[in-house]
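#struct-queue
[09:14] JT: dropping the first one here, sequence first, then the structure tokens:
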Amino acid sequence: MRDVMRWKNAALLALAVLAVGCSSNTKKELPPAELSDFEEEVVLQEEWSRSIGEGQGETFNMLVPAVDGERIFAADVEGLVMALDRLTGKVIWKQDLEAPVSGAVGAGYGLVLLGTLKGEVIALDAASGDEKWRSRVTSEVLAAPAVNGDVVLVQTQDDRLIAFDADSGKQRWIFENTPAVLTLRGTGSPVLTNRLAIAGLSSGKVIAVDTQRGLPVWEQRVAIPQGRSELDRVVDIDGGLLLSGGTLYVVSYQGRVAALELESGRVLWQREASSSVGVAQGFGNVYVSLADGSVEGIDERSASALWNNDALARRQLSAPEVFSSYVAFGDLEGYLHLISQVDGRFVGRKRVDSDGLRARPLVVGSWLYAYGNGGKLVALTIK
């Protein structure tokens, strides 16, 4: 436990050093870019909105809702979990976990899954909200658990992968990894198929292990730590992994964005990039919210940039998501932006939550769900 706490302190120190480093490199820290006017081509219409308790809370949490069937599940930092009809916003059930939630929400196969700052994994019945089981892990869970119907997979803050029996919550196996010396606070949600459990690590590697026994299948390095200081060598994969067909997409901080072959881990293409929030994919392109506040569209065939929209510098953008013919993402002032997949121009904008919009937008068909930092969950369609 002492080693775990020491590592947690190192993680928090990394954030502090990042902040100091940024401010000391300039006489005055530059403010977020102001929003520029544009000719609106798309109108986002609010279908419904609900308040989900305290939302993300005061600390840097990344709680993301999940849709399973016709229900959307969301949680706040204090442990309030809600199931809503995704088309009407009607509340189906509420549950108070009485625990600080830090990894949410995973949903599927009749389960709603959450992780806590106390190192717990909690499984609720998706139909009723009743607690099915609660199991301990080695450290904080900062991203949503995954489920394939047989096992529940959790990635902990100390880079361990732990699998539990989906029915009972009994631990099946644990896969150990050595975390980096300094790291950003957070992890991405793991990807789980019937055969493979896949995760991005603070070391800049992506690993795949067998779901039944937790044995290694392949390992691929996406980012190589560079520089003299430990701060320069931070290469976390915090934005999660995106699986589309047989291709796995990943981006690291101070490293690369890459496409990997799912079964082998072979690099299909890669390109220099720095992001801690993740990628989206559509129309043969990959879209990345970069650490400097720009958004880039990348052609998968050539791995070259199609366009770069840098009008939102330093606005702390969320991960992007493909929505119809557009790319959607949020910012620190709670605006949801829509840009064209073709050339990256602005086409629409709507303010969702004045406390900010950190969580990745969730898209299901013609509906987009945005969860603001202050707890406002909004369902939007294109008018």
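[09:21] JT: and here's the second one, same format:
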Amino acid sequence: MNNLKESKYLFDILYNFLGINVELDKNISSLNLEKILYQATLHRITPVIYHYFFNENITSKINNNIYKLLKTQYDISSYRDRMLSNEAHEICRYAKKTDVDAMILKGPILSNYLYNQQGLRMYGDIDILMNREDLSKGKKLISSLGYMQANKNKDTDLLIEATRFDILKKEISSHETVEFYKNGQVNLLDEIIVDINHSVLWKKTTQINLFDDISTNTFLDNNFDYKFEGKKIVGPTPELLFIHTCLHLYSEAVLFCWQYSWHKNWGDIEMIKYLDIGLLMNKEIDWDIVNSYIEDKDFRVGIEFVISNFNILFPIFPIPKLLKKYVNSESKVNYYYTCKGEIKHWNNSLKDRVFNQNIRLEDVLNNTKKGDLLKKNE
């Protein structure tokens, strides 16, 4: 899809969503809407695309089946966003009531803070942050709300209750514990998954640390109430939210090939994550505080990677003045790591990889030995 009018059309829609007035031709009959739907689905931006078509009064001009698919995905996203946001609110309320020090990260926070209505920001679970020493209390809290720790078999759609060994192994070897699933869920539409994280940053290679860690207390002590529909969700301050969003994107982008599903996962190039970054840069955030965190914890390499790649994708977006120093050339940020900690460079541009996933896969497979991509148990 690279260098085709459909990719430009999608970028122009996103520019407008980010507040940059780019004129689009409302006569969309010449566009391949199947390609647009496919890419929008991979990048988790179908609700944003539908939102644009609806606001511009051009939904009647698109194929009726594609309209129904977009509308259905938008309605499902809206339903799940409201359900997950309400659940995040209940978790925060109950945590305060039971004196458990915790906050929500990512999904419902980003949705309610950045997007102008629920349903536009697609996400699938609720991430909770707490200290490792509070995990026992946190697990009891979530279990008391009707959840069980389990692993899901995607082939059978069945939940398998996690063993003590599964739980201990996950907590020791990663930044989180085994996922919690709400009891009584019978379908994906109503499925609620909760992840408890005991570390802010994650996925470090065996050879190097990508950056200094930042304590969970730095986040927990600097909390902020994000309000929606008369309710609130406790999360990190907007400044820490920006830092976390950037570093989470960076980790997935440079370590994605470590992941058990790296060949099925587009987490390193999903446009929804770059929309988050752009919308955050539109907010009234204290960039001096952001810079102090970056300098104090030596996060510059991660921030440079994200801001530079955002600038490559959206070159006419006005980067906040205090963040412009993090903009670098594409040649400086076109890399990823193998599981041995070795740096590899892409042969194709970011824009090519974003809208041509086959090029991305061919590039990494030609550039890297399979044994350096996959863990031994894969």
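[09:30] RK: nice, looked through the second one.
[09:31] RK: The beta strands are 103-105, 126-129, 147-153, 158-161, 180-182, 193-197, 223-228, 231-236, 335-337, 343-345.
[09:31] JT: good to know. The longest strand covers residues 147-153.
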